[in-house]
Amino acid sequence: MKEHPITIGFDDATFSLKSTSKKTTQLIGVVCQGVRMVNVVRKTITIDGDDATDALITLIDLNKKHVQYVLTDTITFAGFNIYDINEVYENTGKPIIAITEREINLDSVKKALVKKFPNTYKKKFQKIINAGNLFQTEINTAGGFTSIYFHYKGIEIKKIEALLPKICIDSKLPECVRLAHIIGTLF
């Protein structure tokens, strides 16, 4: 693994689930070499829609030549616009890691999906199941060691544990994901 791996990290821009007029938000991608930002890309996605998978594939393809690893802030964007981690990996060939700061209660997520999407929740929930188990590792931050959780595809856990210290500064979030989040708050 290179000393300064090239990653692309994704997060969604700020949005309101209660808005009756705005039904979209931006998916922000930040390319970093190590912890240094080198590019930003974005694409419109639908709040609670089903277009996050295609948007990710499109944005990764724009940077496919250089990017070695893809990282996302969870597997959901814009409410319940859940992406298919397997489809993204199969279409891009890039190892993908979906980071989350806490464990997920699948029963609570399923109940929320059933309530919000009574006729179509199964397809969205299946994407969560297809992401596989949620794994845990420790990250050394400015405040000491802390846990981070992740789904992954196309990479071994040992490589993930070697990668994270190279792409995190003082946060447990990889810098590319942290920057995508910060940029997303500007929209």
Protein model, in words:
The structure is a single chain. The protein is an alpha+beta fold and 187 residues long. It has a single domain, classed as archaeoglobus fulgidus dsm 4304 fold (2-Layer Sandwich). Helices cover 33% and strands 32% of the residues. The protein contains 6 helices and 9 strands, in the order E-E-E-H-E-E-E-H-E-H-H-E-E-H-H. A 7-stranded mixed β-sheet has the order 3-2-1-4-7-9-8, with helices on both faces. Helix 3 (106-116) packs antiparallel against helix 4 (121-130). The protein is globular.
At a glance:
The chain has 187 residues and is α+β, with helices and mostly antiparallel strands.
Query: What is the CATH C level class, in words?
Result: Alpha Beta
CATH homologous superfamily heading: archaeoglobus fulgidus dsm 4304 superfamily
Q: Give, in order, the helices and strands.
A: EEEHEEEHEHHEEHH
Give a count of the beta strands, DSSP E runs of length 2 or more. 9
**Outline type:** globular
The proportion of residues in beta strands is 25-35%
End-to-end separation: 35 Å
CATH architecture: 2-Layer Sandwich
Helix content: 25-40%
Strand order of the largest sheet: 3-2-1-4-7-9-8
Number of helices: 6
Q: What is CATH's topology name? A: archaeoglobus fulgidus dsm 4304 fold
Provide the gyration radius in Å.
16 Å
Return the average pLDDT rounded to an integer: 94
Structural class: alpha+beta
- Report the major sheet: 7 strands, mixed
Count structural domains.
Answer: 1
| Uncertain stretches of 5 or more adjacent residues | none
